[in-house]
Amino acid sequence: MMAGTFDVDLVRKDFPILDRRLAGDRPLVYLDSANTSQKPRLVLDAVDAHYSWHNANVARAVHQLGEEATAAYESARAKVASFVGASSPAEIVFTKNASEALNLVANSLASGLAADPRYRLGPGDEVVITEMEHHSNIVPWQLACQRTGATLRWFGLTDEGRLDVSNLDSLINPRTKIVSLVHQSNILGTVNPVAALVARAREVGALIMVDASQSVPHQPVSVAGPPVAAAPAAPDDTSGSAAGPPVAAAPAARDDTSGSAAGLGVDLMAFTGHKMCGPTGIGVLWGRPEVLDGLPPFLGGGEMIETVTMEGSTYAEPPHKFEAGTPPIAQAVGLGAAVDYLSGIGMANVHAHEVALTAYALERLRAVEGLAFIGPDVPVDRGGTVSFTLDGIHPHDIGQVLDEQGIAVRVGHHCARPVCVRYGIPATTRASFYLYTTNAEIDALADGLEQVRSFFG
Amino acid sequence: MSESLYQEIILDHYKRPVGRGLREPFDAEAHHVNPTCGDELTVRVRVSGDTIEDVSYDGQGCSISQASASVLHELVSGHSVADALSTSDAFSELMHGRGRVVPDEDVLGDGIAFAGVAKYPARVKCALLGWMAFKDALGRIGTLELLKESS
Hints:
The complex is a heterodimer. Chain A is an alpha/beta fold. Chain A folds into two domains: 8-41 and 345-451, Aspartate Aminotransferase, domain 1 (Alpha-Beta Complex); 49-344, Aspartate Aminotransferase, domain 2. Chain A has 14 helices and 17 strands. Chain A has helices spanning 8-13, 41-54, 64-83, 98-111, 139-148, 168-171, 194-204, 249-254, 289-294, 329-345, 347-366, 395-403, 417-422, 439-456, and strands at residues 21-22, 26-27, 29-30, 92-95, 126-130, 151-155, 176-182, 207-211, 268-272, 283-287, 305-308, 313-315, 371-374, 385-390, 407-408, 410-412, 428-432. Chain A has a seven-stranded mixed sheet with strand order 4-10-9-8-7-5-6, sandwiched between helices. In chain A, strands 13-14-17-16 form a four-stranded antiparallel sheet, with helices on one face. Chain B is an alpha+beta fold. Chain B is built from five helices and three strands. Chain B has a three-stranded antiparallel sheet. Classes of the chains: A alpha/beta, B alpha+beta. The interface between A and B is medium-sized, with 18 and 18 residues.
């Protein structure tokens, strides 16, 4: 598919799995991309070519294959850096997934090993998260607070599925050491007003991290821009590398208030490869150079050291300081290819397509009797992840009957159980979209839900 | 569609559960959850001598988990502890049989309708939720009895 245009039918030809037929020769309707995305041929070929022709360990072999593998691995780092607007590849730490990236920061802060007190958690310190976090941005902080005596606090949610920031100034206060929040909720679809929290964090001198696992794959996200004390004066179109105009202009124009593309101005950002057309087993932690310098190591081992004696060790410079052991080399190469693929299509195009899909889905699903959205029911400051309940029919049953029609959705609490508790439900059904999703697939979902209703009605 | 999984008998038990609701008195209770989907069941047992006088239950979850609890009530209430345990074992064997175990209707009654569930590994846990809670509660009575005897 060529840059500068966006044609979902052409995009779909890049993904072999979308040709699958199942459930009695029905076409696959894959609406579970927030769980994991499908992989384009370009990525599959890049991983295959790496193992077939260039396989060796990185950063330690003097032979040609070792140099090729190292170059491929470091080139992937540079591609990822450029994709998120980092000023240097050294700001990109490869991890196993976003969870590991979040755990890395929580554990480094909790270790108490940092020379600079900004990077040490202790009694009296506060950590601020939100009620809409994935468990991976809750549990590491609970553990860190248990270890250090720090206090965990969180933003609540409004009935509409938005972050309740009415107590912003008291929640983020001079005792706050770090604020860690999700950019786009994996269950509600909500895109959070990061800029407001960044501004407050700056006022009190707290670190701020975003979990961008659900935003980096779907919209232009840039970490560029200096940390600023006031809310950034956001230019609203910084799609930058994206070629060509957005396709669906109307809803897209309403969705640009999240500050997403303008440069988040945060200190740390975690995301994962497999949700953005890349392989599993590769995640990313981006950090400002001074923050990565200040944080002590997380995992110890080979390649993260400068020198080792039996009495003690000194450490490599970031990012290698945080990459102990043989890294996910082929996975990084695959992620680099995924970044090439997405950049070729243009993240502004991807975003515009998903905004249009989301508007269509909200309208189409609203017409299903007994359906209630969990999360924003308007296509404003939200991504293409739509959770709902249906008439007291349990999501497991919904998912099963949809599966019999070849429709793949996720059911359950989506690793965000506090959100389900907040809205008094045991679980939701979640449909999530990506660049290869079509309106026809949303029609199939709506029709499928009618069948679910008649089956259990 | 779904016929092999959602047998009419299962849907009947789901829509019109038998013996649902927590009752007093009871000798022990167990609360089990399925952490992957949030299904929950509380099961109470009342035992007199070696007879299970009553199994009462309440909870929330998918049709499979809730219907299975209804069948549990039907199959074990009023039966001996030994019979209940062997029924429970037979149901468990059926569920872990990957669709290759032929169920005995004399033992499992309406439970045979769950044979199709065994072909869906993700749903086996749902079908077993109430039964696991039941066995757990029975085990607790055992503990209580021992405590009574030793005091």
